[in-house]
Amino acid sequence: MQHFARWHIWLGWVVGVPILMWMVTGLFMVARPIEEVRGNHLRKDLPEQPLILPGSQLAGADMELKEMRAVMQGGRPVAILTAMDGAVTRVDMASGARIPAIDAVAARRIIEQRIEGGDKVTSVRLFAADEVPFDFRRPLPVWQVTLDGGVRVYVGRDTGEIEAVRTRWWRAFDFMWGLHILDPQTREDTSHPLLIVLAALGTFGALLGCVLMFRRRRARVVES
């Protein structure tokens, strides 16, 4: 036990300051909600204006658009149109024709082309925007394609794009993150009373530990 105590003391000198630094910086980062840190509270809540495409021949361009994104899919330019109500449509930019939502076969083909091991599919399942799995957490209709080894790839039904890749390590990391911020349910709230209080107590405890290290060293010098 004396050897353990001696090792503990020496380890305390090595890691004491970093631990105190981690606790102080952690307390600082959780003191305010991340939305306030990013300045979101300073943005004025103005009504969104629809995107207008004068003279456009794109199918769907006549509806109230929120945004348009141009990508290459299958060797052709594709416009991904998002309406003010959140609905997503794909349009062939060359012909202006609307592109239908992808099916399970198309989702598997996309993953096989873009993901390592994408040809080793174990299951394919479609999720509605309001029923997506917890490891996706976005209100978007997606195909969940599970690969050999537990990798889950999410392909947007209406976008035709890979929206997320979730490995087993990612899911474990996400769980640990939820425990780290003491929010295992949503895993999003990085500033709440319990976390702030415990971070403050941890900082105080680390500070006391650093102070006591000097006191113990001074006591050993007096004894010798």
Poorly predicted segments: none
- How many helical elements? 5
Task: Classify the beta-strand content into a percent band.
Answer: 15-25%
Q: Gyration radius, to the nearest Å?
A: 26 Å
Average pLDDT figure: 90
User: Major beta sheet, specifics?
Assistant: 4 strands, antiparallel
Strand order of the largest sheet: 1-2-3-4
Helix content range: 25-40%
Q: Class by helix and strand content?
A: alpha+beta
The dominant shape is elongated
Distance between the termini: 21 Å
Counting DSSP E segments of at least 2 residues, the number of strands comes to: 8
In N-to-C order, the SSE pattern is: HHEEEEHEEEEHH
Labels describing this entry:
224 residues; alpha+beta; four-stranded antiparallel β-sheet; 8 strands; 21% strand
Written overview of the protein:
- The chain has 224 residues and is α+β, with helices and mostly antiparallel strands.
- It has a domain at 45-99.
- Helix content is 39%, strand content 21%.
- It contains 5 helices and 8 strands; from the N terminus they run ααββββαββββαα.
- It has helices spanning 2-30, 34-37, 104-114, 168-180, 193-223, and strands at 65-73, 76-83, 88-92, 98-99, 121-127, 142-147, 152-156, 162-166.
- The strands form 2 sheets. The chain has a 4-stranded antiparallel β-sheet with strand order 1-2-3-4, with no helix packed on it.
- Helix 1 (2-30) packs antiparallel against helix 5.
